[in-house]
Specification:
Transmembrane segments: 18-36
Keywords: Membrane, Transmembrane, Transmembrane helix
Organism: Phakopsora pachyrhizi
Number of helices: 2
Region (Disordered): 113-167
CATH topology of the largest domain: Jelly Rolls
Strand content: 35-45%
CATH architecture of the largest domain: Sandwich
Order of helices and strands: EEEEEHHEEEEEEEEEEEEEEEE
Distance between the termini: 43 Å
Structural class: mainly beta
Strand order of the largest sheet: 6-9-10-21-12-17-18-19
Helix content: under 10%
Radius of gyration: 25 Å
Largest sheet: 8 strands, antiparallel
CATH class of the largest domain: Mainly Beta
Biased composition (Basic and acidic residues): 151-160
Length: 378
């Protein structure tokens, strides 16, 4: 017998199921259950969604309802294994996936054996509305950076100067695309970030600066993205990031990763810095909490080099394995797994970087991203 929040399903001798849409008291005489209605549907939301089992014949119940609601040994809340607290964490799959981040990085070449499988409507950098925008800033050597603690090399390549929304293509990075309303530079990462083929991402702490004009509300954006993947395609990707320790979070969104679906006009999975936490969230399935392995304190995430690995099957019968770990210690910090779910529709992209709501509490943001690799594409 299984109790749900909206119905109680009990077997009967005539082999038909009995659906009771109210709160009930069950009294057992021998093996036969007798049902008495107690209250209306108003009490049903209070009942937990947990598996229960019938008592043994002859067992004396001092409190029948309490006994029925006792979690079984297979219930997540009865397990001492934190990996089993959430169904959104496949430990074996995530540990195997994380091994890809341990492969020494090699700079991609134009003759790389991998290239993106993309939908037909993508040409150049694609914004969230699906439109193409190929404008870019000419490469240049610059001398100043707004972050006071920034250590810069002799010369860097400036891709975006923060004066307007720009986008382009990384010709030496598997055709990865970028979008930036802030300051985006290639080759300007400090030694402590320890990231090869690295880009720096700077967003002003002024809520009126570095704004993406295409947003429904004020927001700032520097993101890398894959071209759009059609439904049914698959990809496996790794990359590294480093957030400066002074980065703040607020109660508003701050996406460090998105799987963005153009068919849904929104993300289907995010990694967010919000309310002093770094959390993997699924807006449709677990928008606030995807289990104890999907969120850590933000202080354990920033100020260190982070390795990311994600395997995605796009479309209505899709799947995701996403794992995040400390690049120095190779410790897995958090992860998320889900299978047989909708992962975007029509055209979907993996996006990562710094994309946030613009507000007076946010402060400036400096981050570094690099070592992007495409391991599987079909």
């Amino acid at each position: 017998m299984v109790l749900y929040s909206n119905e109680l399903i009990l077997p009967r001798r005539n082999k038909k199921s009995l659906f009771i849409k109210s709160f009930v008291v069950v009294i057992f005489v021998g093996p036969i259950p007798f049902i008495t209605r107690v209250d209306s549907l108003s009490l049903i939301p209070l009942l937990p969604q947990i598996p229960i089992s019938l008592p043994k014949v002859g067992e004396v119940l001092t409190d029948p309802i309490e006994s029925l609601l006792k979690p079984s040994s297979s219930s997540p809340s009865a397990s001492n294994d934190p990996d089993k607290v959430s169904r959104h964490y496949n430990r074996t799959a995530l540990e195997e996936l994380f091994k890809l981040t341990l492969i020494p990085y090699e700079y991609p070449t134009p003759s790389s054996s991998y290239s993106f499988q993309q939908s037909n409507n993508d040409n150049g950098a694609v914004d969230e509305g699906g439109d193409s925008n190929n404008t870019h800033v000419q490469s240049s050597s610059i001398n100043d950076h707004p972050s006071s603690h920034y250590k810069r090399p002799d010369s860097v390549e400036k891709l975006s100067d923060g004066s307007s929304m720009r986008s382009g293509k990384c010709t030496d990075n598997y055709g990865l695309l970028w979008q930036s309303s802030g300051i985006l530079e290639k080759g300007s990462c400090p030694q402590e970030a320890s990231i090869k083929n690295c880009y720096s991402l700077f967003l002003s702490g002024d809520p009126d600066q570095h704004l993406d004009p295409g947003g429904r509300t004020p927001r700032q954006r520097i993101e890398f993205l894959t071209p759009g993947y059609p439904d049914g395609s698959q990809g496996t990707f790794t990359w590294k990031t480093f957030l400066e320790p002074n980065i703040k979070s607020t109660s508003q969104f701050f996406h460090l990763l998105q799987i963005f679906s153009r068919g849904d006009d929104g993300p289907v999975l995010t990694l967010d810095a919000k309310n002093s936490r770094a959390s993997i969230l699924n807006p449709k399935l677990c928008s606030k909490d995807c289990g104890m392995k999907s969120s850590i304190d933000l202080s354990s995430y920033k100020g260190k080099t982070i390795s990311h690995a994600i395997r995605i099957k796009f479309g209505p019968n899709g799947s995701v394995d996403y794992v995040v770990g400390d690049s120095t210690t190779n410790e897995i910090l958090m992860g998320y797994s889900d299978y047989g779910i909708e992962v975007g529709s029509q055209s979907s992209s993996l996006k990562f970087g710094t994309y946030r709501s613009s507000n007076h509490e946010m402060g400036e943001s400096t981050a570094y991203v690099g070592e992007f690799r495409l391991h599987e594409n079909r």
